[in-house]
Protein: Cytochrome bc1 complex cytochrome b subunit
Amino acid sequence: MSTAANEPSRSRGKAPAGERVADWADGRLGIYSLAKANMRKIFPDHWSFMLGEVCLYSFIIIILTGVYLTLFFHPSMAEVEYHGSYVPLQGQMMSEAYASTLDISFDVRGGLLIRQIHHWAALIFLAGMFVHMMRVFFTGAFRKPREVNWLFGFLLLVLGMFTGFTGYSLPDDLLSGTGIRFMEGAILSVPIVGTYISFFLFGGEFPGHDFVSRFYSIHILLLPGIMLGLLVGHLILVFYHKHTQFAGPGKTNKNVVGMPLLPVYTAKAGGFFFLVFGVISVVSAIATINPIWAIGPYRPDQVSTGAQPDWYMGFSEGLIRVMPGWEINAWGHTLVLGVFVPLLIFPLVLAAIAVYPFIESWVTGDKREHHILDRPRNAPTRTAFGVAWLTVYFVLLIGGGNDLWATHFHLSINAITWFVRIAFFVGPVVAFIATKRICLGLQRRDKDKVLHGRESGIIKRLPHGEFIEVHEPLSQEQLHTLTAHEQYQPAEIGPTVDENGVERKVSGTQKLRAKLSESYYGEESQIPKPTVEEYKEITSGHGHH
Ligand code: HEM
Ligand code: HEM
Structure:
C-alpha cells in the first residue's frame, strides 16, 4: 500500500532515493503488500532441501552459458572446409555446426570454458534433479497437496533429458551423430509410422541437412521455454504449499519452523548460488568434457569406439544393448523387437515415477494433507519400491556402458550383457525384499532406543560379576523424533456377507487394494511403536538396567 502522498514525512523534506523508487514501484506493481505477505515466509532447514536449489542454480548457469554459445554457434549442416586454429583438422570437410563448435573451443575468447561449463552444468542439473526427486520420494513429500508439483517436477526431469540430448547432438561430431543414428534406429522400429516420422524429423533420408537447425530451435527455445514456465510454476507451488519439514519438537502438520525468506534464507541462497557456480566452473576448468576435436566430424558410415550417451540417457542405451536381437518377419514386413521392445519399456520406466503418488494414495486411501516428512525407514514398502526402481535404473546404466565395463575391468562383454539381462528381473525383487528388511530392522532399533536408551559404549561390571553395557536415556527431543510418525492400519475389505446373510460382491480391484494395503501397513511391514505404558514400565526401573 502506498501512502507516500499524504505522509507527514513529506514536510521533513524529500524521502531517501531508495524509498522513492520503492514508492514509485509500489504505486504500479503493489510490491509492498506482496513483500509484506512473503518476505517473512519461513523455510525449514535441512541439508537435503538444498538439492532443489542445486537444480535451480545449475539451470540458471545453463541458460547464461547457453546464451553466450548462441552468439558463436552456427546451426547449419552446410559443408565447409575447416581453416581454424586446430591444426590436425585443417582442410577437412565438415558441417558448419561442427566447425563453429571448433571455433568456440579454440578461437572464441573464453569459448571453451563456457562450452565446458554448459555441458558440466547440464550433467549436474540432471543429477541434481535425480537426487532431489529421490529426496522428495523417500520422504513422502509428494503426498497431498504436492502431487501436482511432483508432476511438474517429473516433466522437468523428462524435458531436461531431452534438452540435454538435443544439445549433445548440436555440435555434429562423430559421437553426437552416433546418438542421433541411435534415435533414428529406434524411430524406424515403430511399426507403420516409423519411416514417416523419421523422414519428417530429418527432412528426408537420414541424416539429411535439417536436423541440426531443427534441434537448435528445439534446444534453445522450445524445450527451455516450456521448462522455464514449469519451473516458475514449480516454485510458486513450493511457496504456496509451504515447505515440508521433518518431525521434531514444536513442528506440526500446521506450522513451519525455520528461517525467514528475508534476510536469512535469501542470503544463504545467494551464497549457495555462487558456490554452485564456482564448483561447476572449477570442474569445467579441470576436467575436459566432450572434446569434439578429438572425436572428429560426423559421417554416417563411421562410429567411434566407446560411444556413450550422457549419463542420464544411459539407461535407454542399456535397454537396447541387452535386448536380444529378436525380429518377426511377416507379410513382407519386419518388426524389429530387439529395438521396439526397449522403445516401449523406456517410457514405462519413466512413467513409474509420474504415477507413483497416485498409486500410493489409492492404496492407502489417505486423503489428508501431509506436511511432515516421513523417515524412509518408517515407510518400508515405499522405500523398498524406490530402491527397486533405482536398481532397475542402475542395472540398465551398467548395460548402457557394457563396453566400458568390459574394457576397464577385463570382463567378457557377453557376461556383462547376461548379468544385466538377469539382474533386470531379479535385481529389483531382491532389492525390494532386502530394503524392507533393513527398514524394519531400523524400526526395531528405534524402538529399542526409545525403550532402553542409547548404547553408551561403557561396560560396567556388576557386583556379582555380570558385565552390562550402560544405556543412556534419550532426550525428550530425540524421543519425540523417533515416535512422531503415524502408523496406519491396513485397509480391509470388510465382511463379505451382510447381517441378512446376503453375500456382497468384492471386485478384483478391491482385493488388489486390500492386498497392497496389507503390504504397506500389515504386521509384516511395520514394527509397532512403543506405547507410553511400555515406556513408563521400562523406565520406571522395574527389572532393567
Ligand atoms: C528444474 C528442476 C527443478 C528445480 C529447479 C526444483 C526446485 C525445487 C526447490 C527449490 C524446491 C524447494 C527446496 C527443496 O525441497 O529442495 C523444490 C521442492 C519440490 N520439488 Fe523440485 N525442482 C526441480 C525438479 C523436481 C523434480 C524432478 C521433482 C520430482 C519428480 C520435484 C518435486 C518437488 C516437490 C514435490 C517439492 C516440494 C517438496 C517439499 O515441500 O518438501 N522437483 N523443488
Ligand atoms: C536444460 C537446459 C539445457 C541443457 C540440459 C543443455 C545441454 C547442452 C549440452 C549437453 C550441449 C552440448 C555441449 C557440448 O558441445 O559439449 C549443449 C549445446 C548447446 N546449447 Fe544447451 N542446454 C540447455 C539449454 C540451453 C539454452 C537455454 C541455450 C541457449 C539459450 C543453449 C544453447 C546451446 C548451444 C548454442 C549449444 C551448441 C554449442 C556447443 O555444443 O558448444 N542450451 N547444450
